[in-house]
Amino acid sequence: MQIQQDLLRFLYLNCFKRLFRQLLKFLPPPTQQDEITMRLDRFLCKQADYSRKTVLALLSQQQIRVDGEVVLHRDHAVTDFSHIEVQGKTIQNTSARYYMLNKPAGILSATTDPVHPTALSLLTSIDTTDLHIAGRLDRATTGLLIVTNDGKWSRKLTALKSIEEPAIPKVYLVETAYGISPTTAQRFKEGIYFKTENFTTRPAQLEIITEKLSRLTIYEGRYHQVKRMFAAVGNRVVDLHREKIGKILLDPNLKLGAFRALTLHEIYWV
Ligand code: URA
Questions:
Q1: pLDDT (tens place) for every residue of the chain, 270 residues total
Q2: Does residue 69 share a domain with residue 57?
Q3: Domain total for the chain?
Q4: How far is the CA of 145 from the centre of ligand 1 (A)?
Q5: What is the signed CA dihedral for 36, 42, 47, 48, rounded to 10 degrees?
Q6: Residue nearest atom 2 in ligand 1 by C-alpha distance
């Protein structure tokens, strides 16, 4: 009797486990939110040098607040922008910041460089310590450059999307060395194959403005992508200017080298 019951329990558990494993396959993959949150106890040990034992003691004494609320569990998820207080002392209180810069030619899309001036060096009058660039431009390229301290937001803006996901359009004004051939728009629509990455660009739209001037909309941000696309059709880019990323349009009032904070509308569509 006992053996039969054990056997039944074993079969029942196994069946349940298999069902559970099947269900897991249908769950969505971890989101970027999951990637950038951290457990409160890990955060306090790593960033503020508390020992795990001290964190547990502080939690049980209700001495830790996250965004104003007392937290009791060590696995409470925190982000780069959680306001964290321990015994009334602020450990982290960083707010998310977002800017657009009208990048001039000759400026590196980098935070620091020993030789060339960088995009961040143009952001005079603000603290740039925790800022990074969301979607680089080549040194000679001008136009819209986004700078932020919000890694989750910038990953959403720049991440390579799988073919099923909607991709973010990037719009460039392109001047070429030679007249644009009549087949170029069709070639870009079909996608250009990049051998080094074994990758074909998504259908891109080319609007011909004059013989050597065009507006190109692409959906990735591969290395030298626009230059390589034109090179693939036997042309050469001589001037490149980014006008737009998704719904963020380069502010026409921004002179070359000038920057401004993004509006809430520009931040929240991402
Ligand atoms: N494509 C390029 O070739 N260069 C840039 O700076 C941006 C897109």
A1: 554 555 455 445 454 445 444 443 444 433 444 346 899 999 999 989 999 999 999 999 999 999 999 999 999 999 888 999 999 999 998 899 999 999 999 999 999 999 999 999 999 999 999 999 999 999 999 999 999 999 999 999 998 787 788 899 999 999 999 999 999 999 999 999 999 999 999 999 999 999 999 999 999 999 999 999 999 999 999 999 999 999 999 999 999 999 999 999 999 988
A2: yes
A3: 3
A4: 12
A5: 150
A6: 224
Give 6's contacts (C-beta < 8 A, 6+ positions apart). none
Residue 21, domain member (yes or no) = no
228 and 105, same domain (yes or no): no
Which atom number of ligand 1 is nearest to the Cα of residue 229?
A: 3
Residue 87: domain span: 33-92
Rounded CA-CA distance 96/23 in Å is 36
Coil, strand or helix: which one is 54? Answer: helix
What ligand 1 atom has the least distance to the C-alpha of 137? 6
Closest ligand 1 atom number to CA of residue 140? 6
Please state, in angstroms and rounded to a whole number, the distance separating the CA atoms of residues 206 and 184: 8
pTM: 0.79
Residue 224 CB less than 6 A away from ligand 1? yes
Does residue 137 line the site of ligand 1, with CB under 6 A? yes
Question: Do residue 43 and residue 83 come from a single domain?
Answer: yes
Tell me the catalytic residues. 138
Answer whether 138 contacts ligand 1 (Cβ < 6 A): yes
Same domain, 191 and 234: yes
**CA 263 to ligand 1 centroid distance, Å:** 25
Instruction: Give the Cα separation of 230 and 216 in Å (integer).
Output: 10
